[in-house]
Amino acid sequence: MLGLLVLAFPAGLMAATLQNAGETFWLWRFLGRLHPLAVHFPVSLLLFAALLELFTLRNYAHKLRPGIDLLVWAGVAGALVAAVLGWLLATVEDYGGSTVDIHQWTGVATAVLGLGLLYFLRKTDGGTNPAAVKAFRSLLFFSALGVSLAGHFGASLTHGEDYLSSTLPWNEAEYEYTGEAISANLAAYEGTEALSEQKQVELVGKVRAVFAHNCYKCHGEAKIKGELRLDEKEFVFAGGESGPAIVPGESGRSELVRRIKLPKDHKEAMPSKGKLLSPDEIALISLWVDKGAPWPDAANEVSEFRVAELAPRRPNLPAARKGLSQPIDIWVDEYFETQSISWKEPVDDKTYLRRIYLDIIGLLPSPEAYEAFQKDTRPDKRAAWVETLLNRTDDYATHWMTFWNDALRNDYTGTGYITKGRFAITDWLYTSLRDNKPYDQFVKQLLNPTEESKGFIEGIRWRGDVNASQVTEMQAAQNVGQVILGLNLKCASCHDSFISDWKLEEAYAFANIFADTTLEVSRCETPIGKKASTKILWEELGEIDSTANRSEKLEQLATYLVQPANGRMYRTIVNRVWKQLMGRGLVEPADEMDNLPWSQDLLDWLASDFEDSGYDLKELIYKIATSKAYQQPSVGVEDPLMLVEDDFVFEGVVRRRLTAEQFSDGVSQYIHPVFDNEALKYKPNELAVAEQATMPFARASLVANNEFLKALGRPNREVVSTNRDSQASLLQALELTNGTTLNQALKEGAQKWKEKYNDGDIIIHETYRKLLGRDPHQNEFNVAMEVLGEDPSPEAVQDLFWAVLLLPEFQLIY
Amino acid sequence: MNYNWRRRDFLKKTSAATLAAMAAGAPMSGFLGSCSPKETIKSTADTVILLYMAGGMAHTETFDPKRYTPFRKGMESKEVLSTFPAIPTALDGIQFSEGLENIAQVIDRGTLIRSYVAADLGHILHTRHQYHWHTCYEPPQSVAVPHMGSWMAKELGPVNPVIPPFINIGQRFTVGEGEELKAFHSAGFLGSEYGPFLIPDPTSGLESVRPPVGMSTKRFEARNQLYERLVQESAMGEFGSDYQKESLKRSMEQAYRLLNSPEAKAFDLSQEPKEKYDKYNTGKFGLGCLMAKRLTEQGARFISVTSEYEPFFGWDTHENGHTRLVDMKKLIDAPIAQLVKDLDESGRLDRTMIIVASEFSRDMLTEGRPGAKVKDQVEVPDIIEDMKNYGMHRHFTDGCSILMFGGGVKRGHVYGKTADERPCKSIEKPIKIAALHQTIYHALGIHPETNYEIEKRPFYTTPDGEGVAEMDLLA
Description:
The complex is a heterodimer of chains A (about 800) and B (about 475). Chain A is an all-alpha fold.
């Protein structure tokens, strides 16, 4: 007995010290792994001893006594050995978690109880000491209990906590397939008969989708943790550090299945980062393994990611109904029916006018415009006014510069200029918008550029060496992918993507189109001594002649990409324009067009109609802005994240905050120009025809970025940006509250207004009419009058401006 | 799933973690969901003050002096390792370069790193290296990358809700490479809410946090009251709450509080006793240190005080290196030492980490590093005839000094070593930016696996989460 103690301590100590020494000595590992074998002895011996002891309760000196004593001796010895081996195992093999702790301490407790057992067994003196007999028996039953508990927790560790309980009929619910997509279909694969190849392909496809979204990040090409990769068939079956990941046909013996079932706090639980798999995902993988882990070669053709159709589609427009004749409204009506949403009254004239002004030309309507619009009695007056606004070509172009400058990262200043590593495309962009260049031509000129439009694909060149994934050719591939085609090539430009099917070589093949020579492929910054071919991402669009020079390649690319067959490109742009006007795209994020739209029919129809219109952006805007859908009351969200949720439900325009440019222009329009003409970085009037009206003030989209615009959300344009932050922040509020730019404009404006209007009540009314498009309510008037008085100081006028400009009613497009 | 997407519990669940989730400047896609790391780290610091030596501070001229060769006409440039004699410090056997006597006296309260190794980014551009130093990512990047201060602001929030969590003192953006400087003074995809509060000039710091020039406090309060009453009367109430409105209201209240709070006096250096003010007042940088001290007393999270980058000014010595460094040392020596002393004496140093660092070092001959030399930007004659050629004029990336004090950093510790002969590169325990960032984050209790999902891929505080906190720097 003492010998065992002597054995136990040094071994434990050794294990503890060796743990830190990096490589563990093989013998400790080996002995540790004997623990699962050794535990069976004490469990059976002690339980059996306890059982036999029951027969001796009446007569201690039963004939079974010598046998029981032997069982106890052997059982206790086994418990001690098992405890020592278990300790070793836990130490050298990196176990952890609450179950391990419980198991460990019940095991140790049992071993200690065993020592007591032996002590009292000797004290019984053949049954002559009743107290010792009592103690012995109690300890024996406790030891039996302890060894059972320890065994149970140990089994939970190896087989999973619900290994046993899940088979109980009343626990079935836990493993019922509750997920929607997977559960509905799993039944089709269950049963005993062999699966058809078609079914096998489907099943492994689902499994790969789970792997892709949950496991590739650490078990893919880029990162191979535990020497395991799950992104390709051969790797899945090859297994990793801990041996085979799956044993086909036996999910119970498959390491992968065991580990995805472990509780989150368990050291071996997978995925180790992020959320655990859902019960139905676990069920899916278990089922697949139990079915023999079928993976026919045909399965490799099937994607685990959703991929949107490339080709255009022309859904048949349903007949007009409910007085709805505009195709957009008919599609939306179909959608509303499926969502049980009913149409609401369109917004009033005032709201509508403000919306179309801000959305189409980026300016606020004047009080005169509000009045004229309200007095207009034509039944189609809304459409007529939209048309008028679209025809204010300079205002239209200036407003849309904001959007396109962000998307094409065209700025008037910025990184790269100091080393001539960046080119502006402002002239070309402004002219294209003003002349409403057909979008196919627009894209063609960006891709196969003239000197004026080359900035987009030339990218930004920093001095020095840059990452292989950020050379200008790769920037072009990424940006064309993101902006024009709505896909993310950023991952694939470093390694095979784990968020899509795009491969490293495909990204390089696409980037090669923008290159003078053929780029050497680098994987995660390491050249792999290989060159990719030269290809468009979708070969069906056309073949690039890899021997051609750069400008020829670009010409081919431009021609192929703008074909009607490239439905994706046109879906991408109509979705972007929809988002600009509606606050949320049919597909979100608008840069990821493989995501599911809330109405595929509407998206496809818009894209094909766009083609029919001759790729006319203004026509598209006209259709959206005159639809009933656009005229629905606006919708607010409490969290911007809701806008990118898959289960977003469209009900109407989503409320947005004014952009930095819209806010600034609003101030300039009615109070005082925020920027003087000196601030203009781009002067379109130098280009425009002589009779065009001179701009009454410098529009913010044409001035260089500055602290004021930046605080209000104009991005740096270091990277493509297709979304403005709609959230206010402290830094912004500080800029608005005490920034000199706004303060100065308001101060000068107040002087001017005071001279012009003089009286307090006129100034209050004009402020509300000009900035908010309405007269103040009586209460508002009273509050303002308290501050202004009949003969207000310019300071009081300035403060009124400030307060009204910061009202949500001014700040939001609603 | 059938739920009302305007429901309140969604907001409760996610908004704390996702305010400003849609980042300005960043291509918004995927969504930001912080992966909560498994275990928490016990923090040893609440506040970080970064004292940034912009322009490349030569280690052999400051905290890691080598053999001194006084100027003489006709000397060979290859002889020159240090242009100043060495002076003793409070640590036995550790010397600094002449002109840093004050810091030398307090170095026993912190750790001296002598083996920082900067990145190889090819032909040297200061702003690219500064971008790398402050964000841990090499520019350009395909997503907008946050400054380290923005990570702290995002993960830890402000210490005192009135004081912005990320304050940047001393850098103007109207200088050369101003646009490049802007590129990393940004919260990137974390959202503008976590961006830097900029105080380009500490002497006019108060202007950033007080009512607009010419507006009395009384008028400021009245204006705010008018605003609040008009908001109440506005018809927008019918639209109910949404995040733009809520965030606008909240931000306006915060701004009003900051501009009108007693804490805002932290920005007012004239409140400091004259004697103390004079101790710090070596110029803009020194006063920046003083402001950092005052802000720390009011509860700041991250403050960066820079000696200010402007091409060919400050530490960016392309000529007259020796003479210029005399002035630079005068600029930094007293205030840095005073800041360490003041915070130590008030006990704040225990939870405040001060870091003194630069994007890279300089050398007389080597541009880049041995083995990775890059295009020279300065002509260095073999024989020096003119004093203007006497100094460290080339950019050296292979051995730089960093000082760290407080916030759990060891006291009286020297980490790493550079060679005593040219190239004076790191020869013991070289440490790179990712490990340095992780060490700072570790002290703040920010887990190394902290990440956000951007465009469906995890984006960590350091690229792929690389770099392990160097525990040898922490007590």
